[in-house]
Structures are given as structure tokens and as C-alpha cells.
Amino acid sequence: MWRPIRPITRDPFAVSDARTIPDSDLVFVPVRFPDHDTEAVEVRPPTISQHKWYFKDQQQVDDVLFFKQVDSSTKPGVPRRVPHCAFKDTDLPEGAGEPRASIEVRAFVFYDKD
Fold first, then answer.
1. Is there a contact between 59 and 7 (Cβ–Cβ < 8 Å)?
2. How far is CA 67 from CA 32, 61, 73, 84, 103, in A?
3. How far apart are CA 49 and CA 46, in angstroms?
4. pLDDT interval class at 60 (50, 70, 90)
5. Distance of CA 92 to the CA centre of its chain
6. What is the pLDDT of residues 19-58, one digit of tens each?
7. Where do the structural domains in the chain lie, given as residue ranges?
8. pLDDT of 9-22, one tens digit each?
9. CA distance 50 to 29
């Protein structure tokens, strides 16, 4: 669950249609913390076909977004991840709007296989 704490006037939050981002466009990068290492996934520019991204312009505090970030399913057509990010809206003048402030909650959902 992701929601803004105040209306979004710059750097909106975008989610992808994961079906449009092939694994070949993903890059795994190391992330190092003082007590452990992990990795993040970044998306490189499209190589085969166009990626599709969606965002809500002027998102308000009651515009809550739910999305499935990771799925362990191996069924064909079920996305394993949903790339998401903030982006700079080039239609806005430099420095316009307040910095984005948001809150997110992550939950694990377990269920029996079909």
C-alpha cells in the first residue's frame, strides 16, 4: 500500500505494466548496508518493445495505491515483480512544487497453490 501524505505536486509515483518489461531489461545491482548486503532491481531503457508506465497526476492523500510488488508464482503470464519509481515531470518548471512525501506498508500474503 502506498499513499501520499500531502498532494503530489512534483516527482509523481509511477508503476509499470510488468508484462511490458522483459527480464532482459532488468539489472540487479548490489545494495550494501553496514550489517548486510542485498540487491535491488533497476530497469534499463527498453530494448525489445516499449515499457508501459502509469501514474496519477496531482495524486491526493485519499488516492491510495495497492500493488503486488513480488510474486513467487511460476505460472505463465503472472508477473514476478512490478517495477515502480518516482519520476521528474519535465513539463514542470525546475523547482516547482513541494517534495513528494509518502508512506508505504508492505505485507506478505501466503495462500495455498491453485
1. yes
2. 26, 17, 16, 10, 14
3. 6
4. very high
5. 21
6. 899 889 999 999 999 999 999 999 999 988 899 999 999 9
7. 1-21+50-114
8. 999 999 999 989 98
9. 22
18 Rama sector, left if φ>0, alpha if ψ -120 to 50, beta otherwise: alpha
Nearest-angstrom CA–CA distance, 57 and 7: 10
Average pLDDT rounded to a whole number, residues 91-111: 89
Residues listed for the chain: 114
CA 43/CA 26 separation, integer angstroms: 5
Cβ proximity of 100 and 88 under 8 Å: no
pTM of the model: 0.78
How far apart are alpha carbons 92 and 98 in whole angstroms?
A: 12
